[in-house]
Amino acid sequence: MRVLVVEDEARLAALLREGLTREGFAVDVAHDGREGLWLATEQPYDVIVLDVMLPSMHGYRVCAELRERGNWTPILMLTAKDGEYDEAEALDTGADDYLTKPFSFVVLLARLRALARRAVRERPTALSVGDLTVDPAGLKCSRGDVRIALTPKEFAVLHCLARHAGEVVTKTELLCRAWDFAYDGDSNVVEVYISALRRKIDKPFGRTTLRTVRGAGYRLEA
Fold first, then answer.
1. Percent of the chain predicted with pLDDT > 90
2. Which distant-in-sequence residues (6+ apart) come within 8 Å of 96 by Cβ?
3. In this structure, what DSSP letter does residue 101 have?
4. Do 79 and 86 contact (CB within 8 A), yes or no?
5. What average pLDDT is seen over the chain?
6. What DSSP string describes 178-222?
7. Pairs from 79-86 (Cβ < 8 Å, separation ≥ 24)
């Protein structure tokens, strides 16, 4: 999943980026409301973690602005306030969930996954490409009855390919979905993960479903 964290506390923002990245999320971070609003409208996200007290534009305003623009990405609001009226204002503004600081990272993680599951509309929870099954809710992959162990980043790359099964997915698109917006490393990292996926989802089963389309990108076939 791709997550936008809008949080002005540098230490908390860094901890959230580190923790979510370790769990396999692609994470972008904004430190003020206007930057968060811009990123949320310029990039596709599966869920947004939005602090209430932000410089330049508070979280309630960011949330309301996104909803007014027709952006219905699930929003989890974070705040140091714990009053019932604050929670009601967050939900009435358009937020989907509310978490009071300090919070448990385990609970945050569970709520993000729940929000992402509820946001699924047109695509199924589990994706099937032939006998290959990719389950984003449970971070599980299998071919037939055989479970395949993947790292979080391998899963993120495969999930993107499975969502567009039969279509060519460019290296740039994979970087955009499986890595964060600020990633400026070597784009050849995609090839490394594609090779690793082939060793796990194809080679042991005598398959060649993950194909390279020269000059264009990669395609996952049934």
1. 49
2. 74, 75, 76, 115, 118
3. S
4. yes
5. 86
6. HS-TT--S-TTHHHHHHHHHIIIIIGGGT---EEEETTTEEEE--
7. 79/51, 79/52, 79/53, 80/52, 80/53, 81/52, 86/52
Rg (CA), the chain: 19
User: 32: which 2 tokens?
Assistant: 């003020």
Side chain identity, residue 72? W
pLDDT for position 181: 57
Please say whether the beta carbons of 168 and 218 come within 8 A. Answer: yes
Q: How far apart, in whole angstroms, are the C-alpha atoms of residue 38 and residue 35? A: 5
Residue 50: band (very low, low, confident or very high) from pLDDT cuts 50, 70, 90: very high
Of 63-77, 81-95, 182-196, 201-215, the least confident: 81-95
- Asked if residue 48 lies in contact with residue 76, where contact means CB atoms within 8 angstroms, the answer is yes
Residue type, position 206, single letter: G
Which residue bears the tokens 């599966």?
Answer: 46
pLDDT at 182 over 70: no
